[in-house]
UniProtKB/TrEMBL annotation:
Gene3D superfamilies: Glycoside hydrolase/deacetylase. Coiled coil: none annotated. Residues 80-187 form the NodB homology domain. GO terms for biological process: xylan catabolic process. This is Chitooligosaccharide deacetylase. Belongs to the polysaccharide deacetylase family.
Length: 322
């Protein structure tokens, strides 16, 4: 029985399908078991978003960049605080707990603030791409334009760090319908643009190349929690712990993932830094935690579980078609 209309929608003169089409439904119960190295239960990774906002960005037809009339010096400078002050505070706390970052990087930072990149590399952090600037969106770009952004990010990260670009989070999460196809074709391992699961999942792309969606958890991301939900620092810490506890318990049956997405301009404030310190202290005290980077999760999943999960999901589709 069809409960909802499934006709295509229309946006900016384009036909938008009723579903994204990047994945098929996969119920949480009954999945093939995911195992992590050394019998760990939960893969924990931290994604510092190190971003560059322009004071006077190009206009976007899709959305306004700033909240106030431009030039919005207030909001620009609040984010700049993260790169000047908050980053080093956050990095110090993470290093004290032995937690490496997987940096969601606006690659313009490489040229504007190379000292930040030097420290990320010294700490052994992974760099993946969050686009060029957080004020230039993928919305409305054609395939050639998107491909140029991806290649620019890849070449920049390789130039400044020697690292391969393996992961992607679109700037301001502004992906287009074909963005995931292009990322797979450009040889990336994983995407964070999808928010549909607590375990890694295969992504369906037109090339058929192996491409994985990693959990990137907006519900524990400091921007929506602290900026838009007005949750107290104490409650934010408890939220992180509660989120971890449930995933850790479920990880006894099959490996789970917890991502903690952070922004230096928020968590690096003097009155909030203790949240990160106590959260990492709590999480790292559990012996079943695999402290890891996004690249390492994706590579492990691709090597050990991708094929089995893909076949299982395909089998569900065949059962549904009977």
């Amino acid at each position: 029985m069809s409960l909802l209309p499934t006709k295509p929608g229309f946006m900016a003169g384009r036909t938008v399908p009723p579903e994204p089409g990047y994945y098929d439904y996969a119920p949480y119960m009954g999945r093939p078991k995911i195992t992590w190295p050394e019998g760990k239960r939960l893969a924990f990774w931290v994604a510092p978003n190190i971003e560059f906002y322009e004071l006077a960005p190009p206009a976007s037809e899709a959305r306004a960049v700033w909240y106030r009339p431009e030039p919005d010096v207030l909001n620009y400078a609040m984010r700049d605080y993260g790169n000047r002050v908050g980053f080093d505070r956050m990095a110090d706390v993470m290093a004290a707990h032995g937690v490496r970052g997987s940096v969601s990087l606006n690659v313009a930072v490489c040229d504007h603030y190379p000292k930040i990149i030097e420290r990320c590399c010294e700490l052994g952090w992974e760099l993946f791409s969050h686009g060029i600037y957080n004020t230039r969106y993928m919305y409305g770009m054609n395939e050639d334009e998107q491909r140029r952004v991806i290649r620019d990010a890849r070449e920049t990260i390789l130039r400044v760090s020697g690292q391969r670009l393996d992961g992607w989070l679109s700037p301001a999460i502004s992906n287009e319908l074909e963005t995931q196809d292009l990322l797979a074709e450009e040889g990336l391992l994983y995407t964070l643009d999808l928010f549909h699961d607590d375990q890694p999942m295969p992504v369906k792309t037109r090339s058929g190349k192996k491409f994985t969606s990693l959990p990137y958890m907006m519900d524990v991301n400091d921007v929506p929690v602290l900026n838009f939900q007005s949750i107290s620092p104490q409650d934010y810490l408890q939220l992180i712990k509660d989120h971890f506890d449930q995933l850790y318990a479920e990880g006894e049956e099959s490996g789970t993932v917890m991502c903690l997405p952070l922004h230096p301009y928020l968590i690096g404030q003097p009155h909030r830094l203790w949240i990160l310190d106590q959260a990492l202290d709590y999480i790292c005290s559990h012996s079943g935690v695999w402290l890891v980077t996004g690249r390492e999760i994706a590579q492990w999943f691709n090597d050990h579980h991708y094929g089995e999960m893909e076949r299982w999901i395909a089998g569900l589709g065949q059962e549904g078609g009977k």
